[in-house]
Design a protein that fits this description.
This protein has a domain at 13-174. It is of the alpha+beta class. The longest helix is centred in the middle third of the chain and has 19 residues, at 156-174. The chain has helices at residues 93-99, 116-128, 133-144, 156-174, 215-218, 273-282, 287-300, and strands at residues 13-16, 19-22, 30-34, 37-41, 50-51, 62-64, 70-73, 76-79, 82-85, 102-104, 112-115, 219-224, 229-235. Helices cover 26% and strands 18% of the residues. 15% of the residues are buried. Strands 8-7-11-10 form a four-stranded mixed sheet. Strands 5-9-6 form a three-stranded mixed sheet, with helices on one face. A two-stranded antiparallel sheet has the order 1-2.
Length: 301
């Protein structure tokens, strides 16, 4: 590839030396022949620069990104040269990255980005395989260089922060908050929780007039041969709530809520912290609460 070719990269395909390159510059992993062997080389080292906010055309006033910019993608960690738009068409730099499918780890002096594909993959893997973000990042390092030599600077904390924000934004998206005039700030307590599809919900999975159904339709009747009596075992149109241990509550034991406040507390399955703690304090003298608190302290220790 000649050094002056593909100074900018547009969406879609660009043919360079009869090779079709996909628009994402970090998808490709190239090698070049040097000193009787092939060696890995980045497209940044070959002269590729990604111009944002101009659909592949040149900007009159480009602003270079941080010299240590790294992009995390599903096939490894990449060095990418990015130029922000600084002309009359300019929008905030973090929005320029988002429109290109790159999620910034911060909004000031961005040095790390993750592709949307990577964050989506990490989200699904963490839910299905229960693997940690640290193990996932270690796998990215191995994909980048499996020899242990020349490993990119550690970006684990940045990836962990981006993954938390990504999940929060996905939750808001699935809850339809972008279509509500009140926006995110108008989200009510428990509004983002996914309802159980097996539980009875009027207007969804219950027939019309279910509340006026006769007794024979409202009950499930079973004959127990032991005492030869017909017992009404359970209602047909009733919600059963079971209590089970929630071992994930240990995640609520943070060092300091001012430094680790959480995102959208009370919007899904967990209650707002103030209301929950107020209720717990009101029941602190109950015998079962004291015993449970002692067991909890022993489990944490």
């Amino acid at each position: 590839m000649s050094s002056g070719i593909a100074a900018t990269l547009s969406t879609g395909f660009r043919y360079v030396d009869s090779v079709a390159y996909i628009y994402s510059p970090f998808i490709l992993r190239r090698q070049r022949w040097k000193d009787s062997k092939f060696e890995e080389v980045t497209l940044k080292a070959m002269g590729l620069v990604v111009q944002l906010n101009h659909s592949g055309t040149f900007c009159e006033n480009p602003i270079p990104c941080h010299s240590a910019m790294l992009v995390l993608h599903s096939n490894g960690i990449h060095q990418v040269a990015i130029r922000y738009c600084g002309c009359s068409k300019a929008i905030p730099q973090h929005l320029q990255l988002l429109r290109r499918g790159l999620y910034p780890a911060s909004q000031l002096s961005v040095k790390t980005c993750a592709s949307f594909q990577l964050l989506d993959l990490l989200h699904k893997l963490s839910l299905t395989t229960k693997s940690s973000t640290y193990d996932f990042y270690r796998a990215l390092e191995k994909l980048t260089n499996n020899t242990g030599i020349g490993v990119p600077k550690l970006r684990y904390r940045a990836l962990f922060r981006m993954s938390i924000q990504w999940r929060h934004l996905k939750l808001l998206k699935w809850g339809g908050r972008g279509h509500d005039p009140s926006g995110v700030v108008g989200t009510k307590s428990g509004e983002l929780a996914v309802v159980c599809p097996s539980c009875p919900h009027p207007g969804i999975n219950l027939p019309d007039g279910w509340e006026d159904a006769p007794i024979a339709m409202r009950y499930v009747v079973q004959n127990l041969s032991r005492d030869r009596h017909t017992h009404l075992l359970r209602f047909l149109y009733i919600m059963f709530v079971a209590i089970d241990a929630n071992f994930r509550l240990k995640s609520q034991l943070v060092s300091n809520y001012s430094q680790d406040p959480g995102l959208g507390i009370g919007w899904a399955y967990m209650l707002p912290r103030a209301d929950y703690e107020s209720y717990v304090l009101s029941r602190a003298k109950d015998e079962d609460v004291r015993i449970y608190g002692l067991l909890l302290l022993l489990a944490v220790d």
